[in-house]
Each structure stands twice: as C-alpha cells, then as structure tokens.
Amino acid sequence: MLFYTVSSKEPLTFITRLKIALGSAKGLMYLHNEADPPIFHRDVKASNILLDSKLSAKVADFGLSRLAPVPDMEGIVPGHVSTVVKGTPGYLDPEYFLTHKLTDKSDVYSLGVVFLELLTGMHPISHGKNIVREVNLSYQAGVIFSIIDERMGSYPSEHVEKFLTLALKCCNDEPDNRPKMAEVVRELENIWNVMPESDTRRGESVTSVSDSSKAMSTPSSSSAAIRTSFVSGDVSGSDLVSGVIPSIKPR
User: Fold this and answer.
1) Is the pLDDT of residue 24 over 90?
2) I want to staple 183 with a disulfide (CB 3.0 to 4.6 A). Which of 28, 135, 143, 179 is the partner?
3) Which residue intervals define the domain Protein kinase in the entry (predicted)?
4) Band of the pLDDT at 45, cuts 50, 70, 90?
C-alpha cells in the first residue's frame, strides 16, 4: 500500500514517501501532545496508515491504544504504562517487549520501522531477516544506498540519507536515545522545506489522524469500523473513538 499510487501501479516517488512519513508523524504527534487525554497508539504499522485519494496519510485503528499516564497524588506523571505486550511482530519496541512498559517512544520505534519500509521497500521481517538490523548493518558499512528501494526512481541522496538516519534514530534500542514525536515531525519538516518547490507543491497536505467517530463500540470490531468510517481528518481536532478509548478532544 505504501509503495504505489492509489489510482495506478506507479511506484511512489521520494517526495510522496516523505509526505506519507510526515503526515503519519503529525497524526501521532497529535495523539501524544494535543489530544485530551493523550494516548499511545501501540500498533503503528504500515497497514494502519491509510492513504486518501491525494495520498495524504491518516493514522487509523486504535483498537490496541492505551491512555497515557495521568499525574499521581504529587502531580508527577509516570513515564510509562505497564501493560501486557500487544502489537505486531517487526514493529514492536524491543524495550516494551522486554519490560512491558509502554511509552510514547514505543510509537516512535514502530513509526521508525514504517520509515525504513518506505525507504527500502523491505518487509519488517522477511526470511528470518529484521529490517532494522539489515539497515543498520548497511549504514555501518557505508552502503546505505544499496538498500534504497529501486522503484523510487531518482532521488536526492542527501535528503534520503537524512531521512534514513532519522528512521534509525527512531529505532534505537534505547528509548532515551529516540527522538520525541514532535522532534520527528520537526526533522521531517526540515527535509521537506529544503526540497524543490516544484516537488513539495505536489504534496501540500501532509496531516493527519483518521476521523473514527463512527467506530463500533467493541474492541473486536474497532479496526474494521475505523477503516469504514475513514474520512479526511485534521490534526487540530478530530474526535477519536474506539473500543478502548473514550472520546478524545484537543487540549
């Protein structure tokens, strides 16, 4: 889904892939920083990033999402939510898998894997190989362009390298070494803003979170319901309702 246009089998260009990445990051930044209460998605993956007819990315399927921690009696906000590990193999934050501690950085890791998919065309796990490990090996060997998706066509190598470096930062084993989602958005915007205007004009809309206000009320049907009710959203304030998350409004 993330490699071809909606209307044809034309491979996506670099600028379109960058647009998808930025829209996805903005949607998650809204959930982490702007929604009230904030939430952790917990199942960020390529199939949960929907594209509309303009190839604008929408983060969807909140069936596994969890509310972010609330302040304790002393006003201190815990840094994580302790929970049974849920998610999709290949996208799971290894620290969350080991400790059962879910944080905003868990979503950052998963989104980093999506970024690597966009850049390489590889699956997260394939024939026993893990995309994060394979890209890291190529990066350390100084041959990163050998793993870039050939279907992307010509691309600005400097900007691709910056994007890939950011993706690997998101996939760092240590959560403290990963950027916050707002930092991810800022870095992607920096890359976007130095692209030729003729390229960026083809992808002006880069937001959002899917509008899931018509979602069903049971966890088992939340994924299908969100997909059915998917419409163009806005990071400044769609209502988000699923089987486990109450109404979320902008703070």
Assistant:
1) yes
2) 179
3) 1-193
4) very high
Locate 21 and state its tokens.
């990445």
What are the extents of the domains in the chain? 14-71+79-250
CATH of 14-71+79-250 among 1.10.220.30, 3.30.1360.20, 1.10.510.10, 3.90.580.10? 1.10.510.10
Please state the pTM of the whole predicted model. Answer: 0.78
Q: What is the pLDDT of residues 209-234, one digit of tens each?
A: 554 433 322 233 333 322 322 223 33
**Beta carbons of 165 and 157 less than 8 angstroms apart:** no
Q: Cβ distance 3 to 121 under 8 Å?
A: yes
Average pLDDT, the chain: 79
- Which of 43, 93, 107, 211 is an active site residue? 43
C-alpha dist (Å) from residue 202 to 14, 17, 47: 12, 12, 24
The answer to whether residue 43 is catalytic is yes
